[in-house]
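[AMINO ACID CHAIN]
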Amino acid sequence: GVSEFMITVSIKNAITPLIQRYLENNPRMIRSLSKSIGWFVQKNIKTLSQSPVITSKWRRRTPLYIRRKLDAKAPKNWLGQLRRAIGYSYDNQRNAVEVGWTSATAAMEGRVQEFGNTRTVTPLVRRYFALRGVPLSDRKKLIRVPARPLFEPSMEVIQPRLNEFVTHRVGEYIKNGGFTKNVGKGRKYEVFG
C-alpha cells in the first residue's frame, strides 16, 4: 500500500496461491524475494521519474534558465540528484519492503515533490530573487510549488508487473535447485516517511 510517500510492498501482494504454498516452508526465499521486489520497485520508480508516463501528468516547471539563476546547480531533469535517494528497506517482522526516500533531507524535499508547497514571499525571499535577476512583482504574496506525485502513480504502472517478476524469480530458484546468495554490497538502508 501507499502511505504518504513511502510504499510498503509485501510478497503476498505478488504471488499466486501455488507459489505461496511452495514458499511457506522457505522463509529464506521469502526474505530474498521480498528484497528483490524492493529492488525492482525502487529501480522502476527511479526510471519512471524520468518517463513521460509519469512526468507528462505533472505541471510544467519554471524554465531552466530561470531556475539556474536561482540555483546554479538546478537539475535539468526531473528530481535531479533526489532521484538517487529512492531506495528500499526490508522489514523482518512483516516480510515486506518499504520503498521511499533514504534520508531525512530527501524525505523533506520529496514531501514537497509529492504534495506541493506554498511559501510566503517575505522581504528576504523577495530580495533573494531580485539579487539573482528574477524580481518578483509587488503583488506576489505566495510562491506555490504544485504537487507532482511520483510514488502512487508509479505503483499503478509497476503493480501489474510484480506477479510476472516474482514468478520469474521463483522459477530461477527452482531451476537452480535452491537458494544461492549473490554477494552484494551489504548495504542496509532506512527509509524515511
The chain has a mean pLDDT of 86. The radius of gyration is 21 Å.
